[in-house]
Amino acid sequence: MKLTFLFVISLLIFVGCSSNEHCEKEKPSDNKQPATIVENSSKVTASVISITKTGGNEYSIRIKVDDSNDYNNMPSIAEKGALYNVVPAFAIDESGQLTDSERNKRLLEGLKLEENNKIEAVIMLDNDFNWYIYDLIKVWNE
Questions:
Q1: N or C: which end of the chain has fewer CB within 10 A?
Q2: Does residue 72 surpass a pLDDT of 90?
Q3: Hey, how many other C-beta atoms are within 10 angstroms of the C-beta on 132?
Q4: Which residues contact 121 (CB under 8 A, 6 or more apart)?
Q5: Which residues of 79-118 are buried (b: 16+ CB within 10 A; e: fewer)?
Q6: Which of the two residues, 136 and 40, has the higher pLDDT score?
Q7: Where are the domains of the chain?
């Protein structure tokens, strides 16, 4: 009788847990926060300190951030007053050629930048720890 009772109880537990996700064993907690993906972009107003044209469509700009704002509802990571070396983040196709996008056209305008120009741009820190201009929104002299 006891053996039958234990068998029935074991069967109920097995059947109940195999169809109920709440019966899954919890993983041991190591008190670490879950990993989150944070967008590393900032919308900045900056002064052009210098520009280096490296050939073709490539260039590098040293900027000083005058103002930094949140972008896409994420906090800004660029610091006001900080200096950054940024290069354009062109959109390219499968063959490695620049696409004919409006963003690429704006980034190509960066080749015309001069020292002391002001820019409004979206800059981002990529996984390779380099800073990129994702979009060049506006250029002016002050």
A1: N
A2: no
A3: 20
A4: 43, 44, 46, 86, 133, 134, 135, 136, 137
A5: eeeeebebbbbbeeeeeeebeeeebbebbeebeebeeebb
A6: 136
A7: 41-141
> Given this model, what pLDDT does residue 16 score?
55
The answer to whether residue 95 scores a pLDDT higher than 60 is yes
Percent of the chain whose predicted confidence (pLDDT) is above 70 = 73
Four-CA torsion 55, 57, 62, 67, nearest 10 degrees: 180
Q: Which amino acid is at 130?
A: N
Burial (CB < 10 A; 0-12, 13-18, 19+), residue 59, is buried
Rounded to whole angstroms, the maximal C-alpha distance in the chain is 93
Q: Does position 26 have pLDDT exceeding 70, yes or no?
A: no
pLDDT at 2: 54
CB under 8 Å to 102, separation ≥6 — which residues?
none
By DSSP bridging, strand 83-88 and strand 131-141 are parallel
Q: Are strands 58-69 and 117-125 parallel, antiparallel or unpaired?
A: unpaired
